[in-house]
Amino acid sequence: MPFLGRKREIEILRDVYNNEKFESIILYGRRRIGKSELIKYSFKDINCKKIYFECQKATEAYNVSNLCDIIASTFKIPKPAFQTLSQILDFLFEKSLTEKIIFVIDEYPYIRDNSFYLDSIIQNAIDKYKMDSKMKFILCGSYIDVMEKLLSNNSPLYGRFSLKMNVRQMNYLESSLFYPNASNEDKVAYYSVFGGVPFYNQFIDDTKTVKENIINLIASPNARLLAEAEGFLLEKMTKLTNANECFCSIALGNRKYTDILNASHISSSPMLSDILKKLIKMDVIEKICPINDENEKKVTYEIIERLSLFYYRYIFAKNTFFKIMPPDLFYDEFIEPDFYSQYVPKEFENISKQYFQILNSNHKITPVLYAIGKYYYDDPKNRKNGEFDVVTLDKNGYNFYEVKFINKPIDDSIVNEEEYQLENLKIKYNKLGFISKTGFNLKNPEKYSLITLDDMYKI
What we know:
Layout: H1 7-17, E1 23-28, H2 35-42, E2 49-54, H3 60-75, H4 85-95, E3 101-106, H5 108-112, H6 118-129, E4 136-141, H7 144-149, E5 163-166, H8 172-175, H9 184-194, H10 198-201, H11 210-217, H12 226-236, H13 240-251, H14 257-263, H15 269-281, E6 285-288, E7 300-303, H16 306-315, H17 319-324, H18 327-361, E8 371-379, E9 384-394, E10 397-404, E11 410-411, H19 412-424, E12 431-436, E13 440-441, E14 449-452, H20 453-456
């Protein structure tokens, strides 16, 4: 399959490769996100020697021996008898004094596990050669916590990286490149389930229905990606039961801290706090603050690893039925009833926020946006509080957008209800807008900012 997306990341890496000075890059992100493929594709049309080495979960000696094989092949020399990574670094840095070399150590935490002193070895090599070297040195890894510790001020490598790149999930627009023949409505459904993870998206067959793809890839006992969803937390979390409880609670709609704690069987608040911190570092859960109020009490938590969200909402929670029912009947009974009425519409709100982020980062919206997110409100009259889900802030004030993923156009009744709510809550705003899957049927459309589903895929 051809390499898709990551245009901005490719441009950044190639800019680094094309200069003549030493550069050190730390590139990291959760597993299956496409880091290795990104690095390899970024080499295309770069004219210099490239050494890409993926560490194994083994000793330094074993990894050094394998790396020596690659060096021999790259430089067309007999296999060198290096015994340590320090010797290899000296050899490659000496070579880089007269020629440009790209040297990548992928899955660095694997070799570092057995040799913590390697951070200092690399630091010494960088400090020794950086003024005269033409090397582009890249450290890559999937253990986000470990990689970020390399950037901390108590790490030997602190201040040694000229570029930090945290590779995260693709947005909805880049992800749609994996299923170009799908309708825009189906593209939203696919992103809602498989998110922006290239490894997942490569298996989507856009000649089949959404239901068929979901069954084939996640919602059947032999589905290709079921083991990915089942084992995702197992790899990183030691107390898996508590992590499962936390995930299941959020997937079923509990987003506030106290609600997550009460709905799960996690025994204490400190334990939940620890789990959430770990899941946030794994880049699978996000802590959300309203753009108008950063009070900790207003914080909510959302699962941003969408395959896990789907798995815990529909499969983990109904695992007894999942194991014995035919997949098509399980889908009809437990997925279909609220998939298009609740699950996908909720994800469409997140896609709408990404739409504004894309416009903003590409200078396609005026005035520039200062913030995109949720807006918290108190309603003392009715003794309740709540959130508006898609709100932007610019120099003129807040802009509110009502998002509807329904099978009829947004009409004046929906517009009037939104206007009434804002007026009743005495919320001042700059602009009112609507985002609709199926268009609009309004008497005075010019009064509002109107965005269709098709608009969102024509950026």
